[in-house]
Amino acid sequence: MIRLECIDKVYRGESFEEKALNHVSLQIKDGEYFLDDIEIHNLPITQLHNIRKRKISFVFQQFALMNHCSVYENIEVPLLAQNVKKAIRKQIIMEKLEMLNIKELKNKLPIHISGGQ
Question: Where are any strands of DSSP class E within 29-116?
Answer without folding.
Answer: 34-35, 38-39
